Amino acid sequence: SKHVIKNIPWTTAKNFTVEIGQQQIEELISTWDIHESWLHHSEFLEEEELKDSKRYHYRACWGLPTRRKPIPRATASVYFVIVISKLKPDTAPVEVFYRLESSRLIRRPEQCEFREKWLRDIIENKILCAERL
Length: 133
Known about the structure:
The structure is a single chain. By secondary structure, the chain is α+β, with helices and mostly antiparallel strands. The chain has one domain. The protein is about 25% helix and about 30% strand. Strands 1-2-3-4 form a 4-stranded antiparallel sheet. It starts with 17 loop residues before the first helix and ends with a helix. The relative contact order is 0.21.
């Protein structure tokens, strides 16, 4: 049985706003199979003008607060880029990519299922590094 990668219907270029982009990133995150103990906040970072596209950069910052440690020792960020092509019709959906803070690998939500383990690995590595210092 083939595993279905959850994605969402992305807005069109002509309907895109920074706020809709952030709402849609939240909508995408809500489809990820992540334990409810993880908390995150997302924010818009910047708009980038390129020759063939406009890129909107966002960040979702994740942590695992607990009752004993309400402020997590480390956080993990996921960076999103929403791309609006200047070459495609404005009725085409925006394109979305993301990458983890510790990685240069760029992923597409429709091609790759997000894994909670990635967040855990970033945080564990940060804590190990801090303990070594």
